[in-house]
Amino acid sequence: MEILKRKVWIDKIVPAFIFLALWIDGWLLPLILLPIFYVLMIEKKNLGWLGFSKHELRYSLFLSLIITGFLIAIYYPIFFYYFPYMSEAIDIYTIFSDVFHYPVYEEIAYRSFVLTHFANLDHPPLSNRNLILNLTQSLLFVSIHKHHFSQPLILIPVFLLGLLNGLLFLKTKNIYGCLVSHSILNGSALLLRYAALGG
User: What is the reported pTM?
Assistant: First the structure.
């Protein structure tokens, strides 16, 4: 009985608290080391368990490009709808945070760490449990994008990014495609803004 309790704490309760910390404070990049160290040192699993592997890599990357194209097509008209209200300058920090920091942090936290700990990876991505968990993590993902709350239509592609990347991870158990689609989408949004603002 004691071993069972310890296993529940290690497999579910502590990971839930780690995710809660990541959800509350999504800007501090070193915090993303917490789930990685937890998996490596406490659970004694390798990073392949979090999706950092060659398993289904090409398929994951291929699907990520389809997801990215679809989301850019949705984002494009929304961007121009809100363009008159956009005035933020694009600097090196913005490029780093949007193309590297946020994709790495959010994909590890919301897709890799949460789905490996709470989804049933042996079942199809659209099984009841996996679908409910994927919808939940997608809504939590939207909730951290408070800076878009004044432009709520932008939350549509944000939600779809979370949902589709969740399905991608559940299907391939590979995080690289999720990282690529998130980075390209964010980078495309910056390029569009840069071009629209006249460079």
Answer: 0.93
**Which contiguous run of DSSP H or E holds residue 146?**
none
Residue 158 and residue 138 in contact, taking contact as beta carbons nearer than 8 Å: no
Rg (CA), the chain: 17
Q: How far apart are the first and last CA of the chain?
A: 64
What digits encode the pLDDT tens for the residues 28-65?
Answer: 778 889 999 999 999 999 999 999 999 999 999 999 99
Spatial separation of the C-alpha atoms in residues 72 and 81, rounded to whole Å? 14
Decide if 107 contacts 178 (C-beta within 8 A): yes
Q: How many residues does the chain have?
A: 199
**Which tokens in the block code for residue 104?**
């790495």
- Residue among 85, 90, 84, 108 at smallest CA distance from 29: 108
Cα 150 → chain centroid: 22
Determine the Cα–Cα distance for residues 96 and 165; give it in Å rounded to an integer.
Answer: 21
C-beta atoms surrounding 166 within 10 Å: 26
| Distinct helix (H) and strand (E) counts, the chain | 10, 0
List the one residue out of 161, 41, 20, 172 whose CA is nearest residue 102.
161
